[in-house]
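REQUEST FORM: STRUCTURE PREDICTION
Request ID: SP-0412
Submitted by: Lab K.M.
Chain count: 1
Length (residues): 226
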Amino acid sequence: MSIHMPTIRKAVAAFALVAVFSLAATGLFGFFERSAQASDAMAQMKTLADNIIAQAQTSECQANRVSCRDKLLALVEAHWDTLEMARNALGVHWKSLDDNERRRFAKLFADLTESIYLSRANISRAEGYTRNLKVDFIREIPDGDTYSQVNTYITLQGREKPISVNYRLKRDGNVWKAYDVVVEGISVVANYRNQFNRVINTKGYPALVQELQDRVQRVHASAQGT
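STATUS: Completed
RESULT:
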């Protein structure tokens, strides 16, 4: 099971996920706590993008990328809505799971996406892009009081056409948390949902869980061997 996404799109998705995952590392956790009530989803994401670009260019992050990545991973659960991400990825099959199964699947799916998109290779590519990158925030599309989407364009040096990157967010108290990133019209979560549906419909849910566990183990083993 694999996500078919060109390398440059995967690296841009990695940048987008790194931005979400690194709130506290860039000092934004305190910003959200103090002023979230006065900020909308776009304002929070704009400040976040500005800070992650600056963070990626620090000498500390450049000197020790492994340590930088580990700090980001330690902050994932606080700043990424893994439960909402898992619910959307499973689609209609989510309803058949009990609460314990939902929590276990959310943890497994989060482990998978972290290991793929926050791999050393993708972190390195994402950091490289931040040196010659511009983010333009286009608009916010609210969906009631709980959900919103922030549309952006990312322009990389040497590419005339900007890349569309849209953040799908859910409000958690006064903080907007991301649960999906759409790169050039390709939703990270929807891409998984299509594959999960095929596995569940042909082999059943337990087979999907086993495949995901095996994939996480392979990715971790590969990372340790590099």
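NOTES: The first helix runs from residue 7 to 21.
Reviewed by: T.R.
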